[in-house]
Amino acid sequence: MLGNRLILDVKKQQIEANLASLFAQVKQAIGGAMNCLLGASALDCQALINADAGVNEKRRLIEQDCLVAIASQQPVAHDLRDLVADMRVAGELERMGDYARDIARDSLSLMGLAKDDRGLADIQDMARLCTDMLDQVAQSHRNGDATLARRVAARNTELHASRKALVDSTLTRMRENPDLVDSGTHILWITHSLERYGDRVTNIAEQVVFRVEGETAELG
Fold first, then answer.
1. For residue 22, what are the contacts with CB-CB under 8 A and spacing of at least 6?
2. Which residue range forms the structural domain that includes residue 119?
3. What is the 3-state secondary structure (H, E, C) of the chain?
4. Residue whose C-alpha is closest to residue 27's, from 93, 104, 103, 85
5. How many structural domains does the chain have?
6. How confident is the model at residue 216 (pLDDT cuts 50, 70, 90)?
7. 7 CB contacts (<8 Å, ≥6 apart)?
């Protein structure tokens, strides 16, 4: 029994290390996506798009390790919660990587189009909020801090408000200047991706609460 406990603890440490790496990859991806939006080369944007396969593979590895641990080590209740939550968190992070990839694709489409610098500045503000939320939810996951997880989820209201203001201002500029219609459409898609990014952070916060308190919370 002691041997099984040791094996399970080692496996869980490996899973947590891979999750920490996945958090870092997703943070790097959203930063890279913003660089694409602000003028990175097409080659750099394509490299970021291609790198999403690595995020997908890391998620698959974490999920596989969790399933093996559940099937082979007979985890007790709190261990089972940890492993189930880790699988779910990995899935949320993978989707966040997809949003960064989508922003890079939209940035490629924006190249050569007339753009409104005010909209780009507002998007950067949204991205900074997303990154800050990601950092905080990663900390809450690492430390098992359900209180911090709830605070992070509450910030999603701020992100939704920022998105609404940006959509309203973008639509106004598109109506005032038809040359901005094409770029404005991509800006709207980018704001949608950032909003969904924040929603996924909230989902991760819910998994932190589930791990710590054994409660399925609706924080969004």
1. 55, 58, 59, 62, 90, 93, 94
2. 2-213
3. CHHHHHHHHHHHHHHHHHHHHHHHHHHHHHHHHHHHHCCCCHHHHHHHHHHHHHHHHHHHHHHHHHHHHHHHHCCCHHHHHHHHHHHHHHHHHHHHHHHHHHHHHHHHHHCCCCCCHHHHHHHHHHHHHHHHHHHHHHHHHHHCCHHHHHHHHHCHHHHHHHHHHHHHHHHHHHHHCHHHHHHHHHHHHHHHHHHHHHHHHHHHHHHHHHHHHCCCCCCC
4. 93
5. 1
6. confident
7. 73
> What distance lies between CA 188 and its chain's CA centroid?
18
- In this structure, is residue 218 part of a structural domain? no
At 175-185, the pLDDT tens digits run 999 999 999 99
Residue 220 covered by a domain: no
Kindly report, residue by residue over 37-94, the tens digit of the pLDDT: 998 899 999 999 999 999 999 999 999 999 988 887 777 788 889 999 999 999 999 9
Beta carbons within 8 Å of 174's beta carbon, 6+ residues apart: 180, 181, 184, 185
Tokens of 151: 């605070």
Confidence of residue 5 (pLDDT cuts 50, 70, 90): low
Mean per-residue pLDDT for 87-116?
Answer: 94
Please state whether the predicted TM-score (pTM) of the whole model is above 0.90: yes
Q: Among 56, 135, 54, which residue's Cα sits nearest to residue 91?
A: 56
Q: How far is CA 34 from the centre of its chain?
A: 14
pLDDT of 2 > 60? The answer is no
* Residue 182 identity: D
CATH number at residue 186: 1.20.58.220
